[in-house]
Amino acid sequence: MNQKTILSFCALVLLSFNLWGQRNELLQFGGEYFNSDTLPFDFSFSDSDKVYIENHYFEEENKEVQLDTNKRFIPFELAQEHLFQNSDSVAIQNLWNRDTLWYDSIEKHFENYTYYTETFIPLTTQLYGLIYHRMDGEGMETYICTYNSQGEFIDRALIGFYTHSGSFSTANGGREPWFVLREFHIDSNLIIETFDYGNSEQKIKIGENGHFQLLD
């Protein structure tokens, strides 16, 4: 084996170890911090989740009401590394579509938002999905990120929320805060169907390449 062949072989081995390291880090993060599920997968906010979110909005503390146990706090360093690929900024999207409204710096963003786990799902032999929540003073939003078999980030979609969105009139002439609700189902064909208060709203296809496509 000549020197050129040896160097090429060593480079290939190093690349393989780097790719395995990325995948292993993703699997470790998903395995240690997230519950693990398989398809099909259904998600809905529990009653205790809703009360906790509403209390947070009203700035009322009730230690007897907590988020579901599968919603674990994600530390800043892990969220930045795995959810934002060590980016310096975070895109803030519109609730009703995927349009980007503005970008926050990562440091400023984490002053106002906290992140929680939901589940880690092997979507195919080549794709993984992480479902997580982002919470601020208005409520909670639910996202899915896709990753390839090397643990590299592919795409992100907003697929659920329970958050404050205006107010409504009460029978006595007063007004109360209104919270909008979106939940979802992911079937074995990698189609995400979202539901607003139980009514079908959107269908999103997870492509073979891991990117999301809004279906008509």
Commentary on this structure:
This protein is 26% helix and 42% strand. It has 216 residues and is of the alpha+beta class. It has one domain. The strands form two sheets. Strands 1, 2, 5, 6, 7, 8, 9, 10, 11 and 12 form a ten-stranded mixed beta sheet that branches. It has a two-stranded antiparallel sheet with strand order 3-4. It is globular, with a radius of gyration of 20 Å. 24% of the residues are buried. The model is unreliable at 4-21 (pLDDT under 50).
List keywords for this structure.
12 strands, ten-stranded mixed beta sheet, alpha+beta, 216 residues, 4 helices, two-stranded antiparallel sheet
Topology diagram in text:
Layout: H1 3-33, E1 35-36, E2 41-43, H2 47-57, H3 76-83, E3 89-93, E4 100-105, H4 106-112, E5 114-122, E6 127-135, E7 139-148, E8 153-169, E9 175-186, E10 191-196, E11 199-206, E12 212-215
Parallel strand pairs: 1-5
Antiparallel strand pairs: 2-9, 3-4, 5-6, 6-7, 7-8, 8-9, 9-10, 10-11, 11-12
* Rounded average pLDDT: 87
Report, as a whole number of angstroms, the end-to-end distance: 57 Å
The percentage of residues in β strands lies in 35-45%
Succession of helices and strands: HEEHHEEHEEEEEEEE
Total number of β-strand segments? 12
The total tally of domains equals: 1
Give the helix/strand class. Answer: alpha+beta
Return Rg in Å: 20 Å
Q: How much helix is in the residues? A: 25-40%
